[in-house]
Amino acid sequence: MDKTIKGLKPLSDDLKIDGSNYRILIVHTRWNSTVVDPLVKGAKETLINEYNVKEENVCIYGIPGAYELPYTAHHLIEAAKREVNIDTDTPVIFGVLTCLNEEQALLRAGIGENSHNHAIDWAGTAIEMAKVRSIKEF
């Protein structure tokens, strides 16, 4: 029995997704690197180790702060579409911590006792949404 209270319920083995053909872009802020760096690391490791995404297909791009996230994500997605000459929709996962204090931020970045790195959930969500994008008919 799954004891998950918060966070993403794990996929059953028969629903596991192979992300070996997926390209993932992680755009992160350089602000609050003590919190952000473990989140980026957790997302990247989860994509590679849990979903078989090839390391060279995980692109990481750092920007100054949170206000720059929407523009940067949009611009980089558009640039990638032009590079391969396609016009397609792209799932975007918005992984932002909302914390009242630094202690909560550290715990949600997987730092400290009884902590959980929320980027692990964001990575799983990205893979699942990429899979949904591949559905051709329902």
Automatic annotation (TrEMBL):
InterPro entries: LS, LS/RS, LS/RS_sf. GO terms for biological process: riboflavin biosynthetic process. The keyword Transferase applies. The keyword Transferase applies. GO terms for molecular function: 6,7-dimethyl-8-ribityllumazine synthase activity. It catalyses: (2S)-2-hydroxy-3-oxobutyl phosphate + 5-amino-6-(D-ribitylamino)uracil = 6,7-dimethyl-8-(1-D-ribityl)lumazine + phosphate + 2 H2O + H(+). Pfam families: DMRL_synthase. Pathway: Cofactor biosynthesis; riboflavin biosynthesis; riboflavin from 2-hydroxy-3-oxobutyl phosphate and 5-amino-6-(D-ribitylamino)uracil: step 1/2. Keywords: Riboflavin biosynthesis, Transferase. GO terms for cellular component: riboflavin synthase complex. Gene3D superfamilies: Lumazine/riboflavin synthase (3.40.50.960). Its EC number is 2.5.1.78. PANTHER family: 6,7-DIMETHYL-8-RIBITYLLUMAZINE SYNTHASE, 6,7-DIMETHYL-8-RIBITYLLUMAZINE SYNTHASE DMRL SYNTHASE LUMAZINE SYNTHASE. Belongs to the DMRL synthase family. This is 6,7-dimethyl-8-ribityllumazine synthase. It comes from Piromyces finnis.
